Amino acid sequence: MSCENKSNNASDTFEKTRTKYNFNPDWKFIKENPENAQNKGFNDAEWSTVSCPHTFNDVDTFDDYSLGHHDGEENQWRGTVWYRKHFRLPETDAGKKVFIEFESVRQIADVYINGVHLGQNQTGFIPFGYDLTPHLNFEGDNVIAVKVNNDRGDHFRDNFPLVWNHEHWHPTHGGIYRNVFLHIMDPLHITLPLYDNLETLGTYVYADNISEASADIFVNAEVQNEYSEPKTVSFEAKIFDNDGKLVGVSGAQQSVNVGEKFTFSVQTTLENPNLWYTRHPYMYTVESVLKVDGKAIDSYNTPLGIRNFNFDKDKGFFNNGEYAKLHGWGQKPTNTWAGLGTALPDWLRDYTFRLMDEAGGNFIRWGHCAGSPAEVAMGDKYGFVTLMPGVSGESEDEGETWDIRIKAFKDMIVYYRNHPSIFIWEGGNWAESEAHYKEILEVISTFDPNGKRLMGNRRADVKNDSEGYISIEIGTEGWEREYPDLPLIESEYMREEAPRRIWDKHSPDDNFFSHPNIKKNTYKITSEQFAVRQVEHWWDKMGRKAYHVGGANWVFTDGTHGGRGQTEVTRASGEVDAVRLPKEAFYATKAMWRPEPQVHIIGHWNYKEGTKKDIFVVSNTAGIKLYVNGRLVGENNTPESGYLYAFKNVVWEAGAIKAEGIVDGEVKAMHTKETSGEPVALKLTPIVGPKGWQADGSDIALIDVEVVDTKGRRCPLAKGRVDFTIEGPAIWRGGYNSGKENSTNNLFLDVEAGINRVAVRSLLDAGTVTITATQEGLTPASVTLTSNKVEIVDGLTLELPQVYENVLTEEPMPIHMPEIPEYIPGETNKSKLFTKFSYTGDGKAMLRTNMHWGKKSHTDLEHNYTVIPRYLVGSEYIRTPNSDKGYWARDQLQFIAGQKMHIYVLHDDRVPRPEFLLEDFKDTKDNIKLDEAVMSLFHRVAEAGESIIMAGNSDGDVPEDAKMYTVIGKKF
Predict the structure, then answer these.
(1) Are 234 and 197 in contact (CB under 8 A)?
(2) Strand pairing report for 700-708 and 755-762
(3) What are the pLDDT digits (tens) for 731-785?
(4) Distances (CA, A) of 922 to 188, 906, 909
(5) What is the Cα 950 distance to its own chain's centre?
(6) In what residue span(s) does the Glycosyl hydrolases family 2 sugar binding domain sit (predicted)?
(7) Helix pair angle (373-382, 399-416), 10° resolution
């Protein structure tokens, strides 16, 4: 039975009925696979002492050049390791239920308690747990043992069954790399949302009938009675606002039999609710309380955000009726950090989120596996619309792989369904069969029937089976919409790469253009060009399209996954580097996306005498005035790509350059960059968590090392080696140099563009740590840090992982919006041959009709076809960008044959023929001359409905004057 109860009988504060222990500190670890390590009496005295989050690959990552071709870093140690933790539970916990929760382990985890095998988890990214109660000893020691394996096949397509764990998608860092908790609760309790192994559902909280005047709140709580007798239970659902004030109560009563699981369902109405907006993400907390004989015996807290939303196919995204363009990032859930690998304390994950928020983000797509519990909660509190997957590589999977994937998807939804920031469930990173789509939707309808969330698969366009099942198009590179009847959101745009250290072509080269591998790079662009392209890609692909919901810039942080720049030890696609130092691209997105007035001058102001260069300013204002040493040198009221103001041939003078942002004739924002003096000293700046540096064995302190002039200004061109010393209870973790091998974990590091960042890890012993930095010719610097003692008793602590709290703010509406061309709804792809056409390259490809001599060959060349075979006249063709001649992706060009058709490919044979051409096409022996290139003509026949996927032109070096292939279609 259920009733609404607004009496004052309920406590107006949170109950304290169960205990959540932080189980992270003080594990034993060995990078070997000894026999019988699961047994309680096994001698682990000689093993290393570590604390979680932990990875055993923090010492062998970010240390090799990228392999290129979208491959990852393959030289991490892989194999089987063991973790063991000794602990005692207090006698007060005897007679209670004890559950262990792993937020995830990579890749395969076998868990034992006192020698008993509890089970295996193979997802690598989804939380899981076990009931320890039957196996515990309350009168002495207990031992949790975890066998962890991070091995994988050499090629991602052969990495069966766990295809998503290959470094093509995620670096293969193994270990207990996220948090571990013990939950102690009454035998009559609200279950945990851990469907894997436990098959328990926890709570399900949602809002409906939402307006500014009221909202109906529904609370479902699964309760289990593990007493030996029935219990009459009073259930209360208490709603607390962001300030901790009790604002609503509802209740019910039920007799729960022995061993029974019963779900309480109650409802209440909140008047004048605070709604969850991306710009004002207001959060409530629902406390579910169980009472027996008037006494609270168990309680559980669930997040609640009250929001309406609409993804409109013609108008974009609306949050509580308010239009919002979504802009943000795809981010790897491994979140690798140079020197630390994947094992990060939660506050460092929060540090990254704060940077994304500062840069104007309000959208995140976890790719291609689920984010961590802490990070999804950060999406709630910072207002990030979240596109949430389970686990996936980039394929439609069968057999054991699919079984693991769909189960992980179920586990993920049960665990995360209460988070208001999740608006879209991602069924997979590739199209599925009709049968698989039905399974995905069945999971959603079973476990999130009232979430009203959309579902989509990235690359759903590769199969007609997708029609009728997906409710949003998760686009690829945003050029064309492929489903005119669905809203469109982008999952991966701006996939170019540039390291932080290379400013522009007018600045001294820091091992970039001079790098011996530079010819192998897919991308050879500077930090300045990278920042400019942030604006161009955003505006041209999404920003200027009224119907486009927005999208995810790929990615926010540099990492070791899928790099294409063989001068780097990272994939340098991030707006911040692998230790989260911002690039100029970071400030470019901030200047576009923050609602407050923003202006950013790209670059520095320390050039040589006589330098004349173009200056680029990014601003969300309506015009820019540019000054050099107070003298007006230019005014621009016509931005390119919505936000980019270019000033040609500005003459450098020592002093200051200033840009003023103008709206309605008034200066609304300004940005100044000064010429710094000669380097004179080093400067060290520590960064620790919001509660300080914790001596828990896994907490991190960061130290920024800068080269400064006599006024304390950073010297932006400074580089060179800095040596460090460290004294006190800590482990040196160091940092990295983006363009050097073997730069991590050393007591020396080069500064890049005047700054770098190192890390130290705490031990279990608290104390004072002193770090000193020296560079020849500069005044050295020192900093002293003190790690705080963490109370750990018998392996347990009540100090939970720290994150930033009380972060709620309300952002204004944007100061100015560039003019967006009017959108006239209608189908954009009129081709009857090239249906569901998409192109994932960097440049823009276009569908064109009536192939003929005199037609333009490429979107970015002025070359025309002069002579073509008569049988091609009147064909349709895809005009590709020649700039992508050396770009590679396995799914660069894709379409579904609208009818039976001839497909021809024109290929420049100075470039090695790609695999798809050799396997699927035959050489016609005809050729076409295009400028100086001889294009060979290949042919095949496709049946109606057939999915055609073509990879890049080449995954190797190509001649400078080579041509990108062209695809031609003709009705059979």
Answers:
(1) no
(2) antiparallel
(3) 999 999 999 999 999 999 999 999 999 999 999 999 999 999 999 999 999 999 9
(4) 69, 12, 14
(5) 27
(6) 24-183
(7) 50
CA 68 to chain centre: 21
Residue percentage of the chain with pLDDT more than 90:
83
- Whether the Cβ atoms of residue 343 and residue 54 lie closer than 8 Å to each other: yes
Token pair of 709 as six digits? 């002039």
Kind of pairing between the strands at 385-389 and 422-428:
parallel
Is residue 949 classed as helix, strand or coil in its secondary structure? strand
Q: Is 162 exposed, middle or buried (0-12, 13-18, 19+ CB in 10 A)?
A: buried
What is the rounded CA–CA span in Å between residue 946 and residue 950? Answer: 13
**Which of 569, 570, 494, 564 is closest to 957 using CA atoms?**
564
* Measured CA distances, 205 to 1, 16, 211, 238, 449 (Å): 17, 21, 17, 12, 11
Positive or negative torsion for Cα 48, 51, 54, 60: negative
DSSP 440: H
User: If we measure between CA atoms, which residue out of 745, 744, 747, 686 comes closest to residue 722?
Assistant: 747
Bond from prior residue into 368 cis (ω within 30 degrees of 0): yes
Q: In this structure, what token pair is assigned to residue 496? A: 């170019």
Q: What is the DSSP letter of 481?
A: -
Q: What angle do CA 730, 732, 733 make, to 5 degrees?
A: 125
Q: What are 173's two structure tokens?
A: 């860092």
pTM above 0.90, yes or no: yes
Beta strands 3-4 and 246-256 are antiparallel
Question: Which stretches of 664-747 are assigned E, i.e. beta strand?
Answer: 666-674, 681-687, 694-695, 700-708, 720-727, 730-734
Give 893-921 pLDDT, tens digit per residue: 999 999 999 999 999 989 999 999 999 99
Q: Count CB neighbours of 8 within 10 A.
A: 9
Q: Quick one: tokens of 542?
A: 């999404």
Contact 910, 962 (CB under 8 A): yes
**DSSP at 764:** S
Q: Which residues contact 120 (CB under 8 A, 6 or more apart)?
A: 108, 109, 110, 111
Q: Please, where are the H alpha helices in 313-361?
A: 346-358
Whole-Å CA distances, 151 to 282, 405, 832: 43, 18, 46
Q: How many CB atoms lie within 10 A of CB 967?
A: 21
* Residues sharing a CB contact under 8 Å with residue 638, sequence separation 6 or more, in sequence order: none
Residue 63 tokens, joined: 């240390």
Peptide bond into 53 cis (omega under 30): yes
Backbone torsion region of residue 692, taken as left when φ is above 0, otherwise alpha when ψ lies between -120 and 50, otherwise beta: left
Q: What is the pLDDT of residues 101-121, one digit of tens each?
A: 999 999 999 999 999 999 999
Is 492 designated active site? yes
Number of other residues whose CB lies within 10 A of the CB of residue 34: 13
Distance separating alpha carbons of residues 84 and 129, to the nearest angstrom: 16
Exactly one of 492, 660, 706, 876 is catalytic; which is it?
Answer: 492
Which string of DSSP letters, residue by residue, matches 372-423? PHHHHHHHHHHT-EEEEE-S--SS---HHHHHHHHHHHHHHHHHHTT-TTEE
Amino acid residing at 287 = E
Of 948, 930, 934, whose CA–CA distance to 858 is shortest? 930
CA distance 237 to 371: 28
Distance CA 719, CA 721 (A): 7
CA–CA separation, 104 vs 370, rounded Å?
Answer: 10
H helices of 644-741, in order, are none
What torsion do the CA atoms of 707, 708, 713, 717 make, to the nearest 10 degrees?
Answer: -50
